[in-house]
TrEMBL record:
One of its GO terms (molecular function) is glycerone kinase activity. PANTHER family: TRIOKINASE/FMN CYCLASE (PTHR28629), TRIOKINASE_FMN CYCLASE (PTHR28629:SF4). Residues 7-206 form the DhaL domain. GO terms for biological process: glycerol catabolic process. Gene3D superfamilies: 1.25.40.340. InterPro entries: DhaK_L_YcgS, DhaL_dom, DhaL_dom_sf, Dihydroxyacetone_Kinase. Residues 212-248 are annotated as: Disordered. This is Dihydroxyacetone kinase subunit DhaL. Keywords: Kinase, Transferase. GO terms for cellular component: cytosol. The keyword Kinase applies. Residues 227-248 have a biased composition (Acidic residues).
């Protein structure tokens, strides 16, 4: 395993840290409307600490670097974001034990999504980060495994799908997390967790472009505007949400 993969992970972490610093106030504004107004500060503090940690790990392989990302986020980020992001990075890092390949990156993404859903107990359509991660992961997996696209091309489509998922959170009612306490007043506000997820995915793609080259960068994802999910599961989620909305 060469040093290029290690350098790429550290570069991705640095990009995410810089993006969270740049978007701190924006995330705070989003969270002020439907949360505790601390998501921007938490993500900025967490990834600044992550950057400091991984910068000191010169000889660590990619899986150890990513696991450290998770451990640091759990210890540094308050609220729900710490265990959701951090715990999921920790668990999914095991998929990179043999290095970063198209196949291992798909496995990593799938495990990350699974752990976020398990830890947050949030389905698609609950107005959470799951609404952004789900279409991103599904689009990335399809692009790699079915469409036989290169990772950068697949990531480009995943970013587009993720952005659609973020937009999807604005007109829906929150049924999970702090925003759910607002009921119908949460409608019309973009979810901050979904937004920070988009910043992470964008940073990963930018790093891939740097290390792998541009490739075909057409951003048109084939995912729908509503986050895609297992059909049977999605149908059940929709029926549950309709029932909740009919209650006075």
């Amino acid at each position: 395993m060469g040093t290029t993969e290690q350098e790429a992970v550290r570069a991705a972490v640095e990009r995410v840290a810089d993006r969270m610093a740049d978007e701190k106030e924006y995330l705070t504004d989003l969270d002020s409307a439907i949360g505790d107004a601390d998501h921007g500060a938490n993500m900025n503090r967490g990834f600044r600490a992550v950057h400091e940690k991984v910068s000191e790990m010169d000889d660590a392989p990619p899986d150890e670097l990513v696991k450290t990302v998770g451990i640091t986020l759990v210890s540094e980020v308050g609220g729900a974001a710490g265990p959701l992001y951090g715990g999921s990075f920790m668990t999914a890092s095991a998929e990179l034990g043999d290095g970063i390949t198209a196949e291992s990156s798909v496995a990593f993404a799938e495990v990350f999504l699974e752990k976020v859903k398990d830890r947050g107990d949030a389905p698609v359509g609950a107005k959470t980060m799951v609404d952004a991660i789900t279409p991103a992961v599904h689009t990335y997996k399809k692009s790699i495994e079915e469409d036989d696209l290169k990772p950068v091309e697949a990531l480009t489509k995943a970013v587009d799908a993720c952005e659609r998922g973020v937009n999807f959170t604005t007109p829906i009612r929150a049924t999970k997390g702090r925003a759910s306490y607002l009921g119908w007043r949460s409608v019309g506000h973009q979810d901050p967790g979904a937004t920070s997820t988009l910043f992470i995915v964008k940073s990963i793609r930018e790093t891939a472009v740097e290390y792998l080259g541009d490739g075909d960068l057409e951003p048109d994802a084939t995912s729908p505007t509503v986050p895609d999910e297992d059909p049977a599961e999605a149908e059940g989620d929709e029926e549950e949400q309709e029932t909740e909305q009919e209650e006075p």
